[in-house]
Amino acid sequence: MTWWDKATHADRRPLLLARNRIIAALRAWFAAEGFVEVDPAYVVASPGNEAHLHALETAVTDDTLTTRRRYLHTSPEFAMKKLLAAGEERIFSFARVWRDREGGPRHAAEFTMLEWYRADEGYETLMEDCATILRIAAEAAGVTEFRHRDLSCDPFAPLRRTSVGTEFARHGIDLLATLPGGAPDTAALAAQLPAAGIPTASDDSWSDLFSRALTGLVEPALGPGPVILDAYPAPEAALARRQPADPRLAERFELFACGVELANAFGELTDPAEQRARFEADMDLKERLYGTRYPLDEDFLAALAHMPPASGCALGFDRLVMLATHAPRVADVMWTPPA
To answer: In this structure, is residue 208 part of a structural domain?
Structure first.
C-alpha cells in the first residue's frame, strides 16, 4: 500500500496530528522563552564540511545564464550562526534538511531538524532545554512514556548525564590516554580495542576506531535513558569549542532516548582560523575516503569573527515524534514521506 491509500492514511493520521500538536506546543514554548523563529535558505554554496556527511547537489542558473554548483543544506547551522553574528540572540527553526546515503527506520534522505541557539549562554543550558522538549512532546502526544522497538523510557524523568570517557572506561578503554596533548594516537586506541571485542584493521584511523567502539559498545549500553552523553573528544566535534579545563575534550553532548540519538549540541566554536583548519582537515579526509570535497562557506567563516559566544542544539524532530507516538519508523510520522 502507498502512504496516500485512504486506509493507510487513516491509520497514519493520528500520528500526523500528534506531530502537529508537538510542533505547536514547541513553538509556543520557544516564543515564551524569548526565541524568534527563523527560516534559513535551503539552497546553499556549501552544505557543511563534515567528512562523513553527504549532500544532495544541484545547479542554479541566474539571469545571465551563469550556472553555479549549489547544494541542499545538511543543516541550517551556518545560516543560523550568521544570524547570531547579525545580532540575533535566541533563535530556532524547524528546517527541512537533506542528507544522501541515509535510509532505514531511523533515517531519511529528507527530514526535519529542530535547531536552536542561545547567545551568551553555556551549553549546559541546552541540556535543560532538551529535558523540557521531551516533556512537551510527551504532553502534546498524550503519552507517559516513549517507545522504540523493545525499549521504553520516561520523558518526564531527569536526564542522566555521563561522559564519553566514563562510558569507554566501563568497557576497559582509557580514551583520554589515546589523546596525549590532544593529538589522536591511533596505535594507543587500537591496542585497547580487541580486548573489548572491537575488531581493528591496519588502515583504521583513530576516528574509525572511536566510532566503531562508540556504536558497538557505548551506545548500546547507555540503556533506555533519557541520557546525555557529554564531553566528546575534541577530534570528534568539528564545530564545538574545546573545554577550558581539558582541551582534549569538547563542549559537545548528544541526547539519547530509547536507544535513539535525538540531539547533538555544542558550545560553539567562534575562532575562524581554527574552524578553517578543522574544515580543511575534514575535507582532506573526505576526498581521501570518498573522492570528493565540498567548498568552504567563506561567508560563514567571516561571520564567525562577529559571532558572540553561543550554544546550539540540533534535534531530529521526526525521531522525537516517532518516540512520542510509538511509531516504528520516522516515515510513519511524515505527512508525505520522501520518495
So the answer is: no
- Helical spans, DSSP H, in 152-271: 164-169, 186-192, 206-213
The neighbour count for residue 168, using CB atoms within 10 Å, is 23
The Cα 265–Cα 245 span in angstroms is 19
pLDDT, residue 136, reads 98
Spell 95-131 as b/e; 16+ CB within 10 A means b: bebbbeeeeebbbbbbbbbbbbbbbebebeebbebbb
Give a yes or no: residue 170 inside a domain: no
* Rounded-to-integer distance, Cα 96 and Cα 278, Å: 26
DSSP 117: E
* CA atoms lying within 13 Å on the CB side of residue 321: 28
Q: How many domains does the chain have?
A: 1
145, 258, 313, 324 from 156: Cα distances, Å: 8, 13, 20, 12
In 3D, which of 290, 318, 147 has the Cα closest to residue 224?
Answer: 147
Q: What is the spatial distance between Cα 294 and Cα 321, in angstroms, rounded to a whole number? A: 32
What is the rounded distance in angstroms from the CA atom of residue 256 to the CA atom of residue 161?
10
Contact status, residue 177 vs residue 288, Cβ threshold 8 Å: no
Task: Read off the CATH number of the domain in which 136 is found.
Answer: 3.30.930.10
What does the longest C-alpha to C-alpha distance in the chain come to?
A: 62
What domain range includes position 235? 6-159+225-333
- Residue 232, domain member (yes or no): yes
Q: What is the mean pLDDT of each run of 10 residues along the chain (339 residues)?
A: 92 97 98 98 91 90 89 95 98 96 84 97 96 98 96 96 95 92 88 91 89 92 94 90 92 96 95 92 89 93 96 97 96 93
180 within domain boundaries: no
Phi, psi of 256 (to 5 degrees): -120, 145
Please state whether the peptide bond connecting residue 226 to the residue before it is cis, i.e. omega within 30 degrees of 0.
Answer: yes
**Residue-level pLDDT at 310:** 97
Place of cell 531527569: 158
